[in-house]
Design a protein that fits this description.
Strand content: 15-25%
Strand order of the largest sheet: 2-1-3
Shape: flat
Number of strands: 3
Structural class: alpha/beta
Largest sheet: 3 strands, parallel
């Protein structure tokens, strides 16, 4: 992923989890007429650039596996907010949906 200058995680900064689901790693390459030319790295960099001045650190994760996404969700208990792009799981990701219900972001 692209790195912003001075974007190392700092414990005193709130963290934003950016959790990206199946097939999103193919952004920029897959069906460009539908999904555009930006890669997932480009999107993460844009979110980092937008949140850096606000004092947030972005923790970006991606997996094509629903069980791994659940593990990644629970791996970050100190996250203050999240952007969840479930990708292909929006059709039938009930276990992921249940895990999201169990996480208590402020």
């Amino acid at each position: 992923m692209n790195q912003l200058p001075n974007s190392e995680p700092q414990s005193d900064r709130p963290q934003l989890l950016m959790l990206n689901g199946p097939n999103l790693v193919r952004l920029g390459n897959r069906n460009r007429n539908i999904y555009g030319r930006k890669s997932l790295d480009d999107v993460v960099f844009e979110v980092e650039a937008a949140t850096e001045p606000l004092g947030w650190t972005v923790v970006a994760e991606q997996s094509d596996n629903e069980a791994e996404l659940i593990g990644l969700l629970f791996k970050h208990p100190d996250i203050r907010a999240a952007i969840i792009n479930s990708g292909a799981l929006m059709i039938a990701g009930w276990s992921f949906r249940d895990a999201l219900e169990d996480v208590a972001f402020p």
